[in-house]
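Thread title: Can someone regenerate the structure for this chain?

I was given the following input by a collaborator and told the matching structure tokens would be attached. They weren't. Posting the sequence so someone can regenerate them.
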Amino acid sequence: MAGKVHTFEEVANHNSKEDCWVTISGKVYNVTPFLEEHPGGDEILLMNTGKDATTEFEDVGHSSDAQEKMKEFYIGDIDTSTLPAKQQYTPPAPSSTANRDSGDSFNILL
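Best answer:
Regenerated them for you:
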């Protein structure tokens, strides 16, 4: 059953114990009624609001029973065009001092 399509901003605004939505694999779940039952505690669900929690969900290795239970909380899909761009890690450029120091150390070792 296809549900309503929600914007990222709309889902991110549901981020409290009284109203908690999470996004996993492009689907939106209202997990508010499950907060007290969640074996990992409500904090972990609350920490995963306002972002795509797919990686965190998969990293835990949820059982097939847990995945089946999720169907109870499904309320729609995320509008992927509203998702923020993922930021990529860019390592800092080495400073010229660091390069000179490492070269001096190398020469001393020789």
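The mean pLDDT is 84.
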